[in-house]
Amino acid sequence: MKAIVKYCALLTMGMAIAFASVARADQPADIVTRSINQLQQETQGRSAEFQQNPNELRTLLERQLLPIADFPYISAMVMGRYYQAASTEQRQRFASTFQESTLDTLTRGLLTFDYEELEVSSAQQAQRYDDQANVSLEVRGTDGKRYPVSFTMRERNGDWKVINVIVNGINLGLTFRNQFDQAMREHNRDFDAVIQAWDPSAAVEEIQSSDGSDDANG
């Protein structure tokens, strides 16, 4: 089911929504595990409610996601080599546009996504840096396919925040950055035009070309 692959990235971005309330001593993998449990508690049995009132889900995601996703840092990485050439106002405007459009896309994705199980891997990668960690998990879709997911998290001032997500080998941060670069070329490096036309769902379409592994092959 292509929709499962497409929105797997969107779901995993939302699975981190409980990070803000976690004690500083917690390890990243523990934070993700707790986040998954809280996400399921917050959304279980509310599908019909969210379908009738998508803004309710949007508000839930905004309230809990914003404190733990480092959108200013992510948006700067998405702008890449163009960041230095942008004005302070343009940087701030793109960060806001990126944040709001990502929340909108995430909300639409979660309204249609269906999964069977979420599981944090017991074998996590060793940290290369004290302030950065990768947390691996696996999403099993209702079609039986499994999709590996990796959160890249950065510690700042004692708080761990998500700065990137890799789904089934697709690096979303890199995909968004390539999209921004292409848009700058198409709009003759007009920041205002690129910001106004920004749509993260276009980059997420790349995930549709990937496919998960079957349980039998898993």
Helix content: 40-55%
Query: How far is the first residue's CA from the last residue's CA?
Result: 17 Å
Protein structure class: alpha+beta
Total strand segments: 6
- C-alpha Rg, in Å? 17 Å
Per the CATH scheme, the topology name is Nuclear Transport Factor 2, Chain: A
Number of helices: 9
The CATH superfamily appears as Tgt2/MlaC
CATH class: Alpha Beta
CATH architecture: Roll
In summary, what is this structure?
The protein has 218 residues and is α+β, with helices and mostly antiparallel strands. Helix content is 50%, strand content 19%. The chain is globular and about 45 Å long.
Word description of this protein:
It is a single chain. Helix 1 (2-14) crosses helix 6 (88-112) and helix 4 packs across helix 6 (88-112). The chain is α+β, with helices and mostly antiparallel strands and 218 residues long. It is globular and about 45 Å long. The protein has one domain (2-214): Tgt2/MlaC (Nuclear Transport Factor 2, Chain: A). It is 50% helix and 19% strand. The longest helix has 25 residues, at 88-112. It has helices spanning 2-14, 28-43, 47-52, 54-65, 71-79, 88-112, 172-186, 191-197, 200-204, and strands at 115-120, 132-141, 145-156, 159-167, 170-171, 213-214. Strands 1, 2, 3, 4, 5 and 6 form a 6-stranded antiparallel sheet that branches. It contains 9 helices and 6 strands, in the order ααααααβββββαααβ. The model is unreliable at 16-25 (pLDDT under 50). The two termini are 17 Å apart.
